[in-house]
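Board notes (copied after class):
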Amino acid sequence: MKKAFAMLVTAAAALVIGAFSAAAADVNLDTKTAYKDDNAVSFNINSNKLSASRFTDSTSIEVGCTGFEGDTCPAKLKLSYWKASEANDNYGEPASVEVEMKEYKDGKAVFAYEDIKNALGETDPTLVYSMDVVVADKNASIGSFDAKNVLSNNEAADQGILHTVWVHAKSPQESSNWGQSMTIEVDQFDVSYMTPESKALVLFTSDAAEDVSASPVEFILQSIDDNVSPKAKNSTVWAKVRPITYGNTFAVFAYDDMVNSYGTDDFTCVSTVHVGDTGKNTIAASDLFVFNCKNLHVDEPKPVEESSAAPDESQAAVTTAAPTESAPATVTEAAAATEADKSSTGNSIIFIIIGVVAGVGIAVAALFIILGRKSKETYDISKHRYVKKK
């Protein structure tokens, strides 16, 4: 009996471990935002949709690609990342690498994790802030994007996986006299993503001298319905943050300074961040990079509640009016979208595990009943069956 019970427990453990090992998710992104230029068709994947730090050794990227001329699909995967260098006061600079397609199969260009890893070399995947599928044929179409065997958003959150957030202004707006050049809503960058190790780096142009003695830019945290910040007045906060280092084209802002300026590390009420000028120069901010950002848990849809309605995938930024001291904020390109509407994150994992455990419990109960019954009976050779012991 002990031997049978041990075998049953071993089998149960294998089933549970198998259920957990199968927890890697597949992320499917809608490619309707793919765009064409004179030479190619491209599709951008911002790190808020899917970060490279969520890839596993078994990850593969499959891109539906049709309509190209010739027999060979001219698709490549471009990875944009933050490169360590002496640029921007040794804080580094943007860079990119290209990953060749492993194979073209069943109408899909397939990219392997091993090739992605080799292309990045020593670069930490958490520094990859954007990916682009580029098909060098303007007549081609990108019909689907599937990332196989990646960590789900909630798994990444549980494991403390970090990533870099990037927001890009497609048409940088000039700002002067304490105005705002860049306005970023919470759907583009949620300040709650930040960790104590986070830093925000802004790239901009300005008319300031190269040896500028005061920062041309400032970082602003805004809330309009605030019940957490001790600095809130009439439920609003306009918290200005000074950079820890700067030049005439970049500025770096620290997490601790944001906490001190806002009054708390609870950023749940912050709805908008701005990059503004400091009244000394004219600036035009183009990019915001935020390093060491965490993944936030999302409410995964219940399996029983299915809907044929397509998710809202609007990426349009909404302009929020600035306080009276500031000029109207401009609108930036939405470079991120809510990941909860984009990925298939293995919603049935919990139900699989519950089912396995329940099945094991039933099997154990049945085993005890059978063995208990047999212990009260003896086998009668003449009758060829079990009879009750006397």
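Comment from the instructor: The first strand starts at residue 25 and ends at 29. Residues 62 and 110 are 5 Å apart (CA to CA).
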